Amino acid sequence: MKIFTLTLNPAFDIHASLPSFIVEHENLASSVSRDIGGKGVNISRALNANGIPNLVLVVLGEENGSEFKSKLEAEQISYKAISVPGRIRENITIHPDGGKETRLSFKGFESTPDVLDNVGGMLDINPGDIVTFTGSLPVGMDEESAVEFLLSLRERGVKLVIDSKSIGIDSIRRVKPWLIKPNEEELAAYIGTASDADTRDFLIALSSDVENVLVSLGARGALLASGGRVISACAPKIDAKSTIGAGDSMIAGFIAAEYSLLWDEDRNASEALRLAVAFGSAACLTEGTNPPRHTDIRTLKRQVLINETG
Mean pLDDT, 10 residues at a time, over the chain (310 residues)? Predict the structure, then answer.
């Protein structure tokens, strides 16, 4: 089994910490970090940190793509890159001590659906391989082109993972991926205001089109709809340092379960859910985009409580 993560719209995430932020004044940052970002990159980070080989496929703007490549190489992330005109987008987050964060985002490069043909040609895939399609689409790339690309991959027998606000629920049902990971906000957008019973009915119905529906619930844990039932996991209590990339790490944990053959003949969905929540919780114990540590995952996995009767 080979694992590929796609990042079509990467970013540089710039974090500036300062004692206070005053509008219409010059503000001096006490510390600044500049990291490469993208949901696919974060998934690969988490897999790499836990000994699971994978390949990042990333689209980079020509103007600042060399810096992105250098940072991938510094983190020992295996990758293949496609260059397009323009710049990789940048996001600046201001973190005042004891105050609310402020975020400033810059527009990145524009792309075209033709880029997806190039990506498909770079994928050396076989039936049973895993391909993740996560994050937003870049400007110039439309949902229908992305869906056609995903359908072409599914026809090649791969297990598709989708976690993208750019792909609507009707398109997800068309593609029939192996895994999706909506959060509570995204789930609410699918079904509107609903009772717990209605939500479970929706998830069970959706699992007829999507093999695994993994719903992240933040500090409360997660739900998994699979095999016609919904099971829940209660996350362990932790002192979180950062929630950046926690959802991406959950996806990595679910993939890790598949890679490690934790899916037995009885489809052990509970263990896959337990590992996914452990990965996500462990990611919160590291600063910024740093991946979850193997020792933390092992410790937290024992603390994840599963309700199989839900």
Answer: 96 90 89 91 95 96 97 96 96 86 89 92 94 95 96 96 95 97 90 75 93 94 93 92 89 93 59 95 88 93 85
User: Residue 196: CB partners within 8 Å, gap ≥ 6?
Assistant: none
Task: State CA 147 to chain mean position distance.
Answer: 18
Q: Using CA atoms in the order 282, 8, 117, 164, what is the torsion angle rounded to 10 degrees?
A: 70
Rounded Cα distance, 294 and 202, in Å: 34
CA separation (Å) from 235 to 127, 155, 303?
33, 36, 8
pLDDT in tens, 223-282: 999 988 999 999 999 988 888 889 999 999 999 999 875 444 445 889 999 999 999 999
Q: How far apart are CA 93 and CA 178, in angstroms?
A: 34
28 CB contacts (<8 Å, ≥6 apart)?
18
**Residue 83 pairs with which residues in a beta bridge?**
60
- What gap in Å lies between CA 83 and CA 96, rounded to an integer? 36
pTM for the model = 0.91
Ramachandran sector of residue 26 (left: φ over 0; alpha: ψ -120 to 50; beta: rest): beta
CB 227 within 8 A of CB 187: no
For residue 192, give both structure tokens.
């509107």
